[in-house]
UniProtKB/TrEMBL annotation:
Signal peptide positions on this chain: 1-21
Keyword Aminoacyl-tRNA synthetase: no
Domain named Copper amine oxidase-like N-terminal: residues: 28-134
Keywords carried by this UniProt record: Signal
Source organism superkingdom: Bacteria
Transmembrane is among the record's keywords: no
Gene3D superfamilies given in the database record: Copper amine oxidase-like, N-terminal domain
Pfam families: Cu_amine_oxidN1 (PF07833)
Protein name: Copper amine oxidase-like N-terminal domain-containing protein
Species name: Aminipila terrae
C-alpha cells in the first residue's frame, strides 16, 4: 500500500502540470492579441499559440514540419524553437527555456516572454488583470499620472481604450483622459452633484467610485 502511494506521489511530482488559461490576456503595445486557441500555463509558465504572438510582434514565422521547428525572423534577429526541447537558438546562440514548446490539439504553443524579450521588447506581468504586457516601442510616459481602481471592469475598459497603460509595474492614465475627467468633475461640483469619480492630489490618482 505504501509503495503504491509513493508511486502515485512521484507521478504527481514528475508529470508536468498543464492547464488552459482562457482568462489570461496578452497585450502588445496596448493592443490585445486575439489567439485562435486559449493560452495555457505549464509548470508556472504561460504558453501561447505561436503564429499570433510572432505576427503581433512584427516577426515572420515559419513552421518546419520535418524538424518540428519554429523559425522566426525580425530585422537581424532569428529565433529557432524545437518542439519538446528546452533549448532555443537566438541568432545562433543557445538559450534555455523555462518551458518547452509543444503541440496541443494541433496548435503549436511557445513562451511569449522569451519570444518578446528575444526580439527586444519589454515584458511585464499585470497580476490584477492577469495580462502579459509587452511593450515594443519606446514611448514617453513621463507626463502620464498614476491610476488606481478596484473595479476590474472599469480598469480593463480604460486599458482597451488606450486611456490607461500598465508600465513599470503601475497603471498610468493619459493626460487627455485626466483632463476630461477633471473637466467633468468641475461640472459636477458646479452643479452640486456627487461625482462618480475622485481625482486625488497631489499625485492625481484617478479612483472611480465603486
Amino acid at each position: 500500500m505504501k509503495k503504491r502511494l509513493l508511486i502515485f506521489v512521484l507521478l504527481l511530482v514528475l508529470v508536468p502540470i498543464t492547464s488552459f488559461a482562457g482568462n489570461i490576456n496578452v497585450l502588445v503595445d496596448n493592443s490585445k492579441v486575439n489567439f485562435l486557441s486559449d493560452p495555457i500555463i505549464k509548470n508556472g509558465t504561460t504558453l501561447v499559440p505561436m503564429r499570433q504572438i510572432f505576427e503581433a510582434l512584427g516577426a515572420k514565422v515559419e513552421w518546419v514540419p520535418e524538424s518540428k521547428q519554429v523559425k522566426a525572423n525580425l530585422n537581424s534577429t532569428t529565433i529557432i524553437l524545437t518542439i519538446g526541447s528546452n533549448t532555443a537558438q537566438v541568432s545562433g546562440s543557445n538559450v534555455k527555456l523555462s518551458a518547452c514548446p509543444e503541440i496541443i490539439n494541433g496548435n503549436t504553443y511557445v513562451p511569449p516572454r522569451f519570444i518578446a524579450e528575444s526580439l527586444g521588447a519589454k515584458v511585464e506581468w499585470d497580476n490584477q488583470t492577469k495580462t502579459v504586457v509587452i511593450t515594443t516601442k519606446n514611448k514617453d510616459y513621463s507626463n502620464w499620472v498614476p491610476y488606481s481602481t478596484s473595479n476590474l471592469k472599469t480598469l480593463w475598459s480604460n486599458i482597451m481604450s488606450g486611456d490607461v497603460v500598465y508600465y513599470n509595474g503601475q497603471y498610468l492614465a493619459s493626460p487627455s483622459f485626466v483632463q476630461s475627467l477633471s473637466k467633468a468633475l468641475d461640472e459636477w461640483n458646479a452643479n452640486n452633484q456627487a461625482p462618480p469619480v475622485n481625482l486625488i492630489p497631489p499625485d492625481f490618482v484617478f479612483v472611480p467610485a465603486e
